[in-house]
Amino acid sequence: MLWFALTAVVLLQSGVLGDKDCNQSLLTNNAVTSSSQLSANFSASHAQMSSKSAWCPTQNFSSSEYLQIVFSSFKRITRIKIDGETNPGVNQTARRVTKYLLQVSRDGVQFQNFKQISQSDVVVQLNAFAVRLVPRSFNAFPCMRVEIYGCKAPEPETCKEKNGTCSQICKDNERYCFMGVCFFRCVTDWMCTKYITCKCHPGYKLLNDKRTCKDINECKRYNGGCDDFCENTVGSYICSCKSGYKLERDRHGCSDINECDINDGGCNQICENNQGSYKCKCWTGYKMSADNHTCIDIDECKVDNGGCSHTCINLAGGRRCACPVGFQVDALGKNCVDTNECYLANGGCETFCHNNNGSYTCSCRSGFELYDKLKCRDIDECARKTDDCDDQSTTCFNYQGSYECRCKKGFKYIPNNKRQCERMTCPPLVESQGTSVSPSECLVKNGRKVGDKCTFSCKAGYVLLDPSKNTMTCLDTTSWDMPIISCRPIRCPSLTPPANGYVYPPFCSTTGNTFGQSCYYRCNKGYSLKNGQNPKRDCTNSGAWDISTPATCAKVFIKPWINCPPDVVMSLDPKGNQADVTALLLKPKSNVGDVKMFPEKYRTSLVFPAGTTTLTYKATNKNGDVAQCTTDVIIEDKTPPRVVYCPNNIYESSPGIDKVIIWRDPEFADNVKVTSVTSDKKPNQKFGLGETLVLYVAKDAAGNTAQCSFSVTVKRLQCPVAEDPDNGKLTNCMNYGSTKYCRITCNTGKQTFMFTYGATCQLPEATWNEIPACVDATRINAGDSCPSGQIQQKSLTGYPNFIKYCVSCPRGYKYDSSAKDCIKCPVGYTSLAESSAQCTKCPAGKSTVKAGSKNCIDQCKPGTSSEDGFDLPLNPNGCSQCSMGYYSDIYGASQCKQCPDKLMTKFKGSNSKDDCGIAPTVTEFGPMNINVDENDRVEFVCKAVGPPTPSIKIVKARPTPDGFGGPVKIESIVEGGKQIGIRYIIQKASEHDQGLYSCVATNVFGKNTKFLNLQVNINLGSGQSGV
């Protein structure tokens, strides 16, 4: 069922979900049955965990075998535990089931799939009347022991009767649980647990019996959430508030009542609310009466005269202070202060009025004096000699209210000094170019006063304009007595222009130039100064030029330029180590004809090695000027090294913990050169037990790599697990030193085909001697003959069996009636049953190890090999894929064949010689460079080889537009029934056909390309032509 497959989960944790006591063993011998049994010792009665054997199905079991447990009543299953057989043979693995399908049933008749389980101990939770365990995978044989735990399934609880014994609310529930997660909707009864839950109305709580509801006293927990008082009621509670507070809308919180909102609380002036009450207050100047609501006036004058300095007058709610005539109340309203007479007409004063207590006085400004107590007049400081002017540099001048000190002639005012002046100065002088002035104070501000002198002199290379005038004097007008004196530079003589040239600036050829200046020789167009001469001439302080020799102009040839062809990138042929780029390397372009390429060896041959080669092109004119550029020729090696030889996987046994392993080193080859071969392992190195991967990596100069990998497996030397004979088993196996011995126990009525004392395996050979099958046998007396189809038992020991038996031919033999003997089936054949009269050929891909083998074994498939040609399980190492460069085209190959001519395969595991090959090579594409006239017929051929045979095509680098170019015909070149090339024919060449063409050969191993150029000469008429 789809829903079940999606939801059923096996619990893998320890412990049991649900009741702790539900962990009882549910298994009894009478409850266990099975679909079949191997024998009485391996019946369903031996399936309990305490059994000394186990349950095993019949020898020829099917996929529908099962072990079934039917319980006495409906059970809740909480845990299932399985194990294999108790006592396996010596050195044998216990036969056991490793995965089984769990099926469940409500009636023991119809079963449903629950889950495939691969754990030996699992926790589940389900209700069932019966279960089945169906083996799905196993070791050696599907044997198992089992234990199932659980308890009696509880009766379901419902609310239908007596309200489920709940005192108030009852609710029906159901659930099933997996992996510790419970789902509350059942989809099938045998997974479901039905139960009830009791709930209570609000205000009640469920008691520990999970059935009875009891009132909750909400007031005991956080006062029921009430701000003030909490009163419990049946199923609920009520909140109330203190006096002066009211209950809020949430019926829990209490808020203050504002009594002032109603008639101001009865207060006749101010009502002030507070938490839980209110208070009446009075305005300033009033006090509260005995009723605490009415305010009465306070007579402030009764206490300390109301704070007044003179008279206090009481008012309603306050008081006022008064003063005698001539005084007024101050800003505080308490003290009497004098009246300021100056506020009225300045008190009659002409200038300043000064108030005092009960009177006032007049005063004048500085420079004036008071008369008639109210008026002011000027004081003449100059006449009274009370001034402080400097008599040497100033003169005193009186004016209303003050006086002024004025500078005398030749003097000037001093900033911030009104009483003294200083001598005048002339402006600072400036030294012109080549001129010096002394003393140095002549050059600074205020450095020279009236009457001072300054002297001028000239520096080297300069002279005075008038040698008699070299001094300047400062006048009382603050100016100098003459214009500033300067020196002029000495002049060098004129220069003569060169032939085919001129001198610049032009005046240099007529008047020359002055000291510190320069003149330049310049050449006319097409000429330049000869041999790098200096065009500049500097005039020195001696009046001579620094270079006395004139310059010369010589004829100029144009500077060369050159444009190199673009870089060339080309891939090597898979079999080649150099490449010809003649068709790809274009010519450089230059404005001169002398162009040379370096290195010189590539001027005659454009064949380049792998890697990057830089070509330098140099263009030289007749003056010997050189321009150069470079082009890189990049020959890419994209072909990785190939594996010439790679060892197969190596399998060895060792009696110790390691072994020295020897192998032939892998071999690699490359079209250029193998530069390195690295490996983390080497021959003659010790390898520990287990499998170790050996990896060789070959690399060429281009970084291409190839790998050879194989494994080295070292196993502990021991006897392999022997296969039980037909109709019997190996028992009582023991070790005697380096020999292992097992007894051969045949089933009832069977005897060994050949008499032997047992099966032995001797180290270091680690192989079992021949183990004969158990076959039908007839006991005879000495001298008696065997019945038809049987032969007398032979011996493997060299000693006869004292008890005489006639035995049938086992599997792997056929009975030859004419020879009256059992004949071994040849290799590749076997007999399917005991007493067969003929041998049957093994199916394709299978064979037998030797004559007389009873089973056809899988052989290595094409593309693989092993030491004996067989695959698993006979060969524990299995088959290995053929290495690259090798193939196997048959079943049962013991080694792979190497590809001929050192060819390679594309991948490992090639199963045909046709898988061997190599990237193609274009052997011919030409003629290399074709030069034809317009309308000429053009033909070029491309040939290539593989193997495998490559596809070949010729492509124009820049395709000719449709409708242009001459008609093209392509023909195949066939040899020996195979295409070896194509012929590309242009019937009439046009200008649109010229350009670069490539021949591309492609197969599964890669591709190869070569190029050629086609040049078409265009007929321009009148004997002219163009390209």
TrEMBL record:
Every HYR domain range: 636-716
PROSITE patterns: ASX_HYDROXYL (PS00010), EGF_2 (PS01186), EGF_3 (PS50026), EGF_CA (PS01187), FA58C_2 (PS01286), FA58C_3 (PS50022), HYR (PS50825), IG_LIKE (PS50835)
Family annotation (Gene3D superfamilies): Complement Module, domain 1, Galactose-binding domain-like, Immunoglobulins, Laminin, Tumor Necrosis Factor Receptor, subunit A, domain 2
Pfam families from the UniProt entry: cEGF, EGF_CA, Ephrin_rec_like, F5_F8_type_C, FXa_inhibition, HYR, Ig_3, Sushi
Keyword annotations: Disulfide bond, EGF-like domain, Endocytosis, Glycoprotein, Membrane, Receptor, Repeat, Signal, Sushi, Transmembrane, Transmembrane helix
Span of domain F5/8 type C: 5-151
Entry membrane topology: Single-pass type I membrane protein
A GO molecular-function descriptor: calcium ion binding
Residues covered by the Sushi domain: 424-489, 490-555
Xref: InterPro entries: cEGF, EGF, EGF-like_Ca-bd_dom, EGF-type_Asp/Asn_hydroxyl_site, EGF_Ca-bd_CS, FA58C, Galactose-bd-like_sf, Growth_fac_rcpt_cys_sf
GO CC terms of this entry: cell surface; extracellular space; membrane
Signal peptide annotation: 1-18
Keyword Iron tagged: no
Record-annotated EGF-like domain positions: 378-422
Keyword Aminoacyl-tRNA synthetase: no
Cellular localization per UniProt: Membrane
Gene Ontology BP terms: endocytosis; signal transduction
Ig-like domain boundaries: 920-1019
Family according to the record: Belongs to the EGF domain peptide family.
Protein name, as recorded: Sushi, von Willebrand factor type A, EGF and pentraxin domain-containing protein 1-like
